[in-house]
Amino acid sequence: MKKIVLMAFAVLSMSAMAQHVTPLSIRIAETKIDSLRTLYLSEPTMYRAALEVVAQSLDKNEDELKAAKAELKAELAHAKEMDNSLKDATKMVASMKKIYAKEESELKSMQKVVEGQQKTLNKQKELNQETRDSYLQLLEKQQKELGYSLRDVADRQRAIAELETTIQNGQTKLQTYIQETQQKTLELAQLEALYKERAATIKAEQKAARNMQ
């Protein structure tokens, strides 16, 4: 029972955790080379300064992308951890269900044996009252203990059924979480490609701007 409580606590704690990835909020800086050229056509120094401002914004984007990649790595690791935990919990639940079903079956069999002994006793009219009462008291005590045990098994079966439902809900949440990590991976790759393209454009333009008079 202790094992069930601990596992239930672990699964419930896991399901209570944030089940959504952190969305990306990175906006890659616009280069707007043509606009800057037009604006600073006769002012090379100002043009180079404007390009530097864009380059600095792209440097900030680079840091943001690195942080986002680290964040995504942690989210992917979390998804793997959740998947492993749910698989372990599923195996444990299946095992405990079998154990409890077997225990219930054995208790009911013992109950039938005691009931049979009680019926036999009721037919044995030749026994004196003292002997009958003593034996009947023993059989009633056994029935009482078996009743307690059956109720305990029923409680554990209900607990394991609730845990099974929690695990199923956790699996549904996990699938959503995994889909979100996949979408984030795609979006991050697109942002990184756009960053590289614009960073290369600015770098080339800065090189050309150094020769402007």
Task: Considering the chains and any ligands shown, give keywords for the structure.
213 residues; rod-shaped; single chain; 4 helices; mainly alpha
Give a description of the structure.
The protein is mainly α and 213 residues long. It is built from 4 helices and no strands. The chain has helices at residues 2-16, 33-39, 44-123, 129-209. The radius of gyration is 36 Å and the shape is rod-shaped.
What is the gist of this entry?
The N and C termini lie far apart (83 Å). 86% of the residues lie in helices and 0% in strands. The radius of gyration is 36 Å and the shape is rod-shaped.
Q: Radius of gyration, rounded? A: 36 Å
Largest sheet: none
- Number of helix segments? 4
Extended strand count: 0
Low-confidence stretches: none
Distance between the termini: 83 Å
SSE inventory with pairings:
Layout: H1 2-16, H2 33-39, H3 44-123, H4 129-209
